[in-house]
Amino acid sequence: MTDATIETTNVVEREKAQYSKAQQADSPAALLVHAARASGRSAFSVAMEARRYRKSKAEIRLWEYVKFGLYDHARHTEKERGEFISMMLQNKCLHAVNDVSWFGVTEDKWNSSMFLDADGVPVPDTLGMIDASGRRYHGGKGIATPEDLKALLTGGVDFPLFGKHNKGLGSVGVFIIDDATADYILLRDVGEMSYSAFFRNVIGQDAFILQRCVENCDFIRTFSRAAATVRMVNMIDGDGIYTPAAVLKLPAKGNPADNFWREGNLLANIDPETGEVLTLVGSDGPVLKSHDSHPDQGAAIIGQKLPHWDRLLEVNAHVAHLHAPLKYQSNDIAITNDGPVVIEVNAGSSFTLPQYASGKGFMTDRVRALFKQHGADFL
Fold first, then answer.
1. What radius of gyration, in Å, describes the C-alpha atoms of the chain?
2. Which pLDDT tens digit goes with each residue over 87-98?
3. Any idea what the CATH number is for the domain that residue 229 is in?
């Protein structure tokens, strides 16, 4: 047995580089040429309009201006264009409205999983923490050495297993273990790797939570092998929960996670009340491409209703109330044949996801009013 060929940097460093590369936009000149051609307007007119958006309170960058299609005046009314907002304001908004002491509850995935599980929320089964730092995990199994991991994986566990960086964002730093023997680990899309090489070339100095893979329900499995999640964007509205957006994140074949920066992944705008699939979009260079059916499977998805939606709404509201000091938050929820499973809770949410999925601005009058009510008076 020989170790799979893999770079010497660990999985977090490799995927951070891939994420950064995915965020690189085309040159400003190329973006302006595309917008001018698509709109039939002059490049100068488009450039001046894009500049006004950049200097507005929405702080929309050129690549966002193009991605949102704001150059196409037939697509949006003036009021609708004013509802778009840049991802650059996400952190400013969530720090303004949230109790920052609660960030630790969500950003440490072990703590979050234990917190949710203790309250009876359906979460993935956690086998332990791969961490050589010496940290002790209350009530859990620490996996500090290659020998510890070998003992766990050859002790009768059910595969596949999913590992993710304990403090990772945007699914940066994930892997899937499909099998293991006394000599090697079988990593999906990588191959066989010895336990020592796994600790050296995958784990490095980081900590990873190790969980059983969550299986999509039959309907979603038609479109995706890896776990897909619904991002439920929540805001505290008085004593209740307001969900202005729901987005299904669909991994493409060969991708281990559903975040949109991974090539080929898709987004679907979901009606938050009914669970109906309203749109399906993918990234196509500097723009978004709408699909009537899944581009790979060809299966119809628009107009379908996601299973277990009533139960998902109950779980979403329960978890949102558990995190009420976070006035702006989101839950990533998988749908299995047995119902919803909460994969992750976020102290905030990406502004781009609902805007990409729906083709509409996120900062509606109601959303803007709630942000201002909770302290984001700069909007």
1. 21
2. 999 999 999 999
3. 3.30.470.20
Assign residue 83 a region: left if phi > 0, alpha if psi is -120 to 50, beta otherwise? alpha
Q: Give the model confidence (pLDDT) of 216-255 as tens digits.
A: 999 999 999 899 999 999 999 988 999 999 999 999 888 8
Beta-carbon contacts of residue 329 (< 8 Å; ≥ 6 apart): 98, 106, 234, 235, 320, 323, 345, 346, 347, 348, 349
Instruction: Domain of residue 158: give its range.
Output: 11-18+125-212
At residue 11, what is the residue type? V
Phi/psi at 310 (nearest 5 deg)?
A: -60, -40
Question: Identity (one letter) of the amino acid at 368?
Answer: R
Beta bridge partners of 142: 129
Q: How far apart are CA 42 and CA 36, in angstroms?
A: 6
Instruction: Clarify whether residues 244 and 157 are in a common domain.
Output: no
Give the number of other Cβ atoms within 10 Å of residue 100's Cβ: 12
Establish if 5 belongs to a structural domain.
no
- Is residue 194 within 8 A of residue 1, CB to CB? The reply is yes
Q: Is this model's pTM higher than 0.70 or not? A: yes
Q: What is the mean pLDDT of residues 1-20?
A: 58
Beta bridge partners of 237: 240
